[in-house]
Structure of p-loop containing nucleoside triphosphate hydrolase protein:
Amino acid sequence: MRDYIIIDHEPVSIESGKPPAYWPASGAICVENLYSKDGPLVLQDITFEIRSGERIGIVGRTGSGKSSLALSLLRLIPTEGKVSFDGHLTDDMNLDALRTNLAIIPQEPTLMSGTLRFNVDPYGQHDDATLYNALRTTGLLSETGGSDGTDLSLDSTVATAGSNFSVGQRQLISLARAVLRNTRALILDEATASVDSDTDSLIQASIRTELRHATLITIAHRLLTIMDYDKVMVLDAGKLVEFDTPWTLLQNEKSYFRSLVDNSGDRDRLFAVAEKAKSARRDTQFNTII
């Protein structure tokens, strides 16, 4: 108890830390010279820029800094450098404002004991129709009940830590919260690593439909999940070593990303998805110009 009493606390909200009422108008993220602080250099001089609405995949070996980078965007770990979200430095804003608008779905989401309603809308900001719609759009509920055949409702009981729900269901509940917030940026921290490929596809489809205007950053467990993304960020020993479209990285036989794909056991399928995404992106750009 004493250790928890003397632990450093996060800064409290202040008036000058409130962002403008219109913020965030976009999900653009800019990172400059980001270093980890107060410990080993898990992150080393990370610099990149993500445009609003882009889908970015992050890959790398275990310990390369993928999760640390995601946590640094939410100011959950001490870092040095500049992180801007929609043109405003995150260091200058209140934590509640930042974390309300930059959502994260972790690999093992934890629910609170209570009801499904409380877990989806803990502050009671939405009516039942809106809550049910969010749960249906994420695939957790069908018109007749739960997606797994169970009879779920907003008043369904959630046990401690959500132990009466599967990992995939907990992911979908977390996604429903993000949909309700209409978040402008969403981080998936290997969120689909513990679910089957069908649930993974369901989550990705829900994100593409309900959060199609949001910036998406995915720490990938399955390469197939990110092969049609706009760009892929490759980390190695805390450094950003590659950052480009999947197809461009695949054309470089010496690239780290190419080696991951070649050794995946599903090389041909991954190449096909990346090439199809390249063609779709090119057609979209052509139609935009017209």
Summary: The mean pLDDT is 86. The chain has one domain: 25-289. The radius of gyration is 20 Å.
